[in-house]
């Protein structure tokens, strides 16, 4: 097999990026009309949709926590989102990612304000090329903001890794498959730098780990900037949206005033 | 709960307006919502397409795989259609294996394509009785704003038109390389009607689905042939109504077919 | 492969029937003592049993509909009812047939009279040769009548199809496998001719479809006659049954009067 | 609910009557309900039988299929028994995968047949270590009026006696053709007893099952050998009771065996 | 294949035992701190752990029996406890054994004293060599006593079998695989000799059965002795335990008196 | 319920004591509970180990089996780790398929071993692209008194060190015979920390797990390399805290490794 050159003489990686460079990221909030909050993300080849519901009553009742909202994060991949067709059933990897991602967001959400409820965050990956859990978590945090759920801070995620001895930000699939690969997904609340998600696999020394970790922190801060920009763009549209909303409510009221019998109608 | 009351109000309004006849979103009775098509949505898929039909949002991906042919059709491949009503698509969908609604959706889309013979299953054969192409068509509903049948059928057609056949070497797939496009000899599509207060409309939106008595989906091809029919809902249709729907199905599907340039 | 002659020069089909002829149908209501209503049907080689329960309280409570009864139709096939052994797990075909058949019956039942309940209709196919969903639906409608569940009308079903260019009533398996086969299961409420079940697969023109549809309507009306005859036979037995029932109640009352302590006994 | 109260009353009555001793349906303590046998119930099955034991209604179908033998018995085929308590059979049965009761039923019928050696598994071998016949015996309970064990065992025996072996060509099944009957060297049957208020009865009906403390099923063959035993229920048996049941099992099963003419 | 000598000229079996001899049995109660009652058993090569919980409220409510406690016995085998790796999913054998074992124990427990509750008995086999259901049931009965659940008597179990024409107590795997093997697991309440579990497979005459059954009864009585000894040993430790318990309660009270605010604290 | 209140009180006490800083069971902040190791627990397993870490009780068994290698690693075998939180282990565990917690546990133990490269997957190859050894490592939690990660990792290591490779004849397993020991080039272990009220402790017991904000598990080898990290819980860690944990993980795991003589 031909030797892969992970970093060339000009310090450029396989896909032309520098060691500390993220792939292009595009985030669009409010893309799904039936969800209470949503976001679409493109992160390199990765594509994901997130829909958020809640806080809503936790059902069945016996799962309710009287002290706080349950954060229910469901990460799933489409069958065609990976090189070989994935079974439609959720695999163990998806279950583990759902758990750690939900725990990461729970730290950021003011869960204690919504006892006995769930906040459901549904994530689906439609195309993938390494780093989907970080892309999903980044988008989920924007969808939560879009849903108006009060948070201490956004959660910003990115992975850092190693290939052929080089510590690099946001590795792509080919870099993740290097024989000495290390992969470390990381998520923080950027304002306080608190680490809310941290996983690592691959064999690494303390010193290299520290270098990688600090590069990862920088990456998360960049992601934070992109998230804020996406949300800002959305809030700039709010004046316009609000005008529309007022018009909509007016219309609803008009409907009801014209059809007062509707108010008496059955509420299923 | 608030959400429920709102839909109840809208549904009641739909039933009122249809008497005029008028639709809640001011469409003509036989007018589709705007369609947006985005093919090649997923690079890992062998073919893919995202359809926005109004606010309804559906993503379909195709994967081709090699398997042993069925013993009774040793020189044929086949298609397999799956559908997932993702929980993000509606406050009432729940995570878990496909329910009755998802199963019906997948099977009707399957029959519409399969029976049209748009794909020649014999051309999917690789080695008789040993190896043939099987085409996995997976439908993901991302936002349910009504008429999942037509949106899914559009997205499935779009994904199939986008499908490249993986390259073979010694009858094994070479990853990331392709030997050409999947051949589609026609463009089968579903057209779905709702019966509301005795009136027929095409492409029902959510509030209309909540107001409707029954649903009728008709699969057609450009040769004015039908490949599938499916009545749904707890209401009924008269013969005259069905015949009206058939006429309209040919007409409306021809309009939709024009949205796909290729093939 | 030898060419199959689907319709011979005398206009007879493979099994000797004419194009507009149903296979022999035998329906027996009230065959299962533990069900509240039941029926057994033989339709050509097809054999099915139906048991009906309800209206009974829908459980768990959160599935209850306060405006009407839920019609829960479960269509299943025995493992040995088909040429190759079927898996005991319900397949996608069985799930779809259950859905559309339940919707067909819901139109005929006065569901609005029984809020918060389910009407459970369990159908099992023990032998099959094309047309089982129509046979099952036909029998289910008789079983509902047997259970005394109030209905607008019976639901009568039969399939119509095409083989070798011929439109024919109630196709058998060999006809269903013709290279140009079309299969159209149909169910109506015969008094009003309202179509409550309609499915079709196969490639067909508008004109042929109309011919097929109208042949199907005629078939349904014949099925209606057979259903009514089966129920009439049953009602003729009612005088006798009722006499028995009165005798039974008398016996019960006698039992209780002899053992008054039974009335005080635990009711699990 | 009304149904429950009625069964409660009947069960109490059973416990009262047994003291005389008498049974609710006036049978003798060791008398079976009438048995109706209908073989060849399903043409698609390789063998089938419907049994009515009083109002209890059981349908068994057999399918023979070819599979790889187990590594530790390379020259043998085998049997597989499944049972489904269909929801139509009783107001308390629910749809879904087999529960504890269905599993126990299937396994006890399996052992009664398997251990009797009525079927010579070595004769099911086709190609050693490669191919052998596996016999799928599927039990469907259509109406539960008591004593599913004996009714299922009768129906399984009836279906096996009806079983034709599919014809083979190049070790593959030729559909719809048969090479002969499955050979059964004996007729294993279960005989089931209920202990009610300290008294033993055979063939318990529903009200008796609700009244009983414990159940004992004994599998026997015409050579006065036992092939299976299974105690059920939360009660107990004494040694003397078990020995009485064994004597009776041989006696009653011989009567039942006469109902099958063949074999 | 070489002929196996199941019983040699000195009347000794493959593993050196006599025909009426049990394998060595070791029972230790109270081995799991989180369960309310527990026991560990070694029976020849068989190794099992049992944990008991309850009587505790049966959930969901609709499964509750207002007349008695439900005995929920769950028998499972570890994947590596058998020669070939077992699937982690419970098989049909495990389900049947769970049912008959639970029924056997239900006779011994005063279930009528604890309406609306379940008594959960979880059994896991970690190594096996024939007779695991009897070992498990024997240990479960000790674990129930350890949990302080009132019982009419212990339940004592052992199997009896036949190999090469010899009736023998507590057969091992090799004996169970004899060509003429009979296997009869048996459980009794030893004081009254009531049979609470009885299963048999293999082909056997009435006379041989009686011989086997009576040998089995003797085996169960021996097992009873071992169970009582194990429990006695435990009760001898009770003085010591009780002293510890009093000390523990004192400590708790002290804790609370020092931190009275704890009593007011949330009870999740 | 009483049980719940008690744990609540203990958890509150843990949070109080940690301010001193002190632990409920009087351990040092970075002190493990006593470890008992029993290898060869199950003879039917190819390797097995029972670990008692304080009152936490974990049993791990290993089975080696032959299967076809993955197409992308034709000359390699692999490992598969499963975990079951048995219902006997805690009043809150329920029977059924593995939940999120069991899945996470299994996958973190898997990565700790796999990524350490202690097992050379290439040495598990038997016939390239056809047959290789796959090592099934199944973790059973018998009593949960806290820190299942480290207890499971210790038991998995113990079981692997105990593992004998089944003998092969014509590339098939000869039952009950072995060809030698499985080779482990190093001893990967997890070390788990809990953050309670801003303080870090190692090897948290149940009351401490109930009191903790977050958990950090670090997989290490004797060459002072890390093979896995996993943060759990809804709290967070600072960089300084993580770095402290890394230092301690190397130190504590070296102590634990001494408990295994072999390898």
How many separate domains make up the residues of chain B?
A: 1
CATH H level, superfamily name of chain B: GHMP Kinase, N-terminal domain
Strand proportion of chain B: 25-35%
**Strand order across the biggest sheet of chain A?**
1-2-3-5-4
Q: What is the count of structural domains of chain A?
A: 1
Quaternary state reads heterohexamer
Protein structure class of chain A: alpha+beta
Rg of chain A (C-alpha, Å): 21 Å
Structural class of chain B: alpha+beta
Order of helices and strands of chain B: HEEEEHEEHEEEEHEEH
- Count of helices of chain A? 6
Radius of gyration of chain B: 19 Å
Shape of chain A: elongated
Question: Can you offer a commentary on this structure?
Answer:
The complex is a heterohexamer, with three copies of chain A (268 residues) and three copies of chain B (263 residues). Chain A is of the alpha+beta class and 268 residues long. Chain A has a single domain, classed as GHMP Kinase, N-terminal domain (Ribosomal Protein S5, domain 2), CATH 3.30.230.70. Chain A contains six helices and nine strands; from the N terminus they run ββββαβαββαββααα. In chain A, the strands form two sheets. Chain A has a five-stranded mixed sheet with strand order 1-2-3-5-4. In chain A, α1 (92-108) links the parallel β4 and β5. In chain A, α2 packs parallel to α4. Chain B is an alpha+beta fold and 263 residues long. Chain B has one domain (2-257): 2-Layer Sandwich (Ribosomal Protein S5, domain 2), CATH 3.30.230.70. Helices cover 27% and strands 35% of the residues of chain B. Chain B has five helices and twelve strands. Chain B has helices at residues 2-17, 100-116, 148-161, 206-211, 239-257, and strands at residues 35-39, 47-53, 56-67, 78-85, 125-127, 131-143, 164-169, 172-181, 189-196, 199-202, 214-220, 225-232. In chain B, the strands form three sheets. In chain B, strands 1, 2, 3, 4, 5 and 6 form a six-stranded mixed sheet that branches. A four-stranded antiparallel sheet of chain B has the order 10-9-11-12, sandwiched between helices. In chain B, strands 7-8 form a two-stranded antiparallel sheet. In chain B, β11 and β12 (225-232) form a beta hairpin. In chain B, α2 (100-116) crosses α3 (148-161). The longest helix of chain B is centred in the C-terminal third of the chain and has 19 residues, at 239-257. The relative contact order of chain B is 0.18. Chains in contact: A-B, A-C, A-E, A-F, B-C, C-D, C-E, D-E, E-F. Chain A binds chain B through residues 31-36, 38, 45, 47, 49-51, 53, 74, 76, 78-83, 85, 88-89, 120, 122, 124, 126-129, 252, 255-256, 259, 262, 265-268, and chain B through 1, 4-5, 8-9, 12-13, 16, 41-46, 48, 55, 57, 59, 61-63, 65, 82, 84, 86-91, 95, 97, 136, 138, 140, 142-145, 175-176. β12 (225-232) of chain B pairs antiparallel with β9 (194-205) of chain C, so a sheet runs across the interface.
